[in-house]
């Protein structure tokens, strides 16, 4: 079966590098594992947090997998090996305009929420370090109560200033990088094995008191080693893609 947009002139090595980058992009989907424990800790004790979290994870991963597979299959069926990293901003199609813009709006809403959740550990670490270094500074430690009708919250000058600067820097950096796929793949490759595989596996081994050398121990270690190889391969592919992109593209000149 021939796919529209298939590129027969693309070399086998290019396809192989792109496959490694794609693996890194997929690995980034596991980033939620870093905050899953914090989310579980915020749940009520009835029903048990671990059971509620297990059901939520199962449903979320199933739904996410279905959407990702549909998106990947539809993109490849339409564009073949030339499928762009951001299919909504590609030159493949521009109509219907309202549907594309609606999809982009949904992505913005989705990413705003995801960014707020994923960046909280960074905010927390920096603010704790600042409070420990300057405990007597009212700029750093003072909490100012504020009320808007029935809504009550506290404001901190340091938190307001540094978070604003952080958001501006991250936004400018994201706009300046024209190599979307390779950077996403590198982030996914770096974070996948240690946070999604290695630490959970080691904690499970300790908690279940699995003896070294047993079949279960060997199986878990084999799984961890295999995922390490996958992460290293994706990282190599991402670095290769970044190296090529640096020589081709200019900052703030995004090419889908």
Automatic annotation (TrEMBL):
Q: Which residue range or ranges hold the Amino acid transporter transmembrane domain?
A: 15-241
Question: In which compartments does the protein localize?
Answer: Cell membrane; Endomembrane system
Q: Is Membrane there in the keyword field?
A: yes
Q: Name one Pfam family in it.
A: Aa_trans
What membrane topology was assigned to this protein in its record?
Multi-pass membrane protein
As for what it does, the entry says:
Carrier protein involved in proton-driven auxin influx. Mediates the formation of auxin gradient from developing leaves (site of auxin biosynthesis) to tips by contributing to the loading of auxin in vascular tissues and facilitating acropetal (base to tip) auxin transport within inner tissues of the root apex, and basipetal (tip to base) auxin transport within outer tissues of the root apex. May be involved in lateral roots and nodules formation.
Mind telling me what this protein is named?
A: Variant 3, Amino acid permease 8
Naturally occurring in which organism (per UniProt): Pisum sativum (Garden pea)
């Amino acid at each position: 079966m021939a796919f529209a947009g298939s590129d027969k002139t693309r070399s086998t090595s290019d396809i192989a590098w792109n496959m490694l980058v794609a693996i890194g992009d997929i690995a980034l989907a596991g980033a939620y594992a870093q905050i899953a424990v914090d989310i579980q800790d915020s749940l009520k004790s009835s029903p048990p947090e671990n059971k509620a979290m297990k059901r939520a994870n199962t449903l979320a991963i199933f739904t996410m997998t279905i959407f990702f597979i549909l998106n990947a299959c539809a993109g490849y069926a339409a564009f073949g090996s030339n499928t762009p990293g951001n299919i909504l901003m590609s030159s493949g199609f521009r109509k219907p305009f309202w549907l594309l813009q609606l999809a982009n709006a949904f992505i913005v809403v989705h990413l705003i929420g995801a960014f707020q959740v994923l960046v909280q550990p960074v905010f927390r670490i920096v603010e704790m370090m600042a409070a420990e270094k300057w405990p007597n500074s009212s700029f750093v430690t003072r909490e100012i109560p504020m009320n808007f009708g029935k809504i009550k919250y506290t404001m901190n000058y340091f938190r307001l200033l540094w978070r604003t600067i952080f958001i501006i820097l991250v936004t400018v950096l994201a706009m300046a990088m024209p190599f979307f796929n390779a950077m996403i793949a590198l982030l996914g490759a770096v974070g996948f094995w240690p946070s999604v595989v290695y630490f959970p596996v080691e904690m499970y081994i300790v908690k279940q008191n699995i003896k070294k050398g047993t079949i279960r121990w060997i199986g878990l270690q084999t799984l961890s080693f295999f995922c390490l190889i996958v992460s290293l391969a994706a990282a190599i592919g991402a670095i290769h893609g970044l190296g090529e992109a640096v020589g081709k593209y200019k900052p703030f000149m995004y090419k889908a």
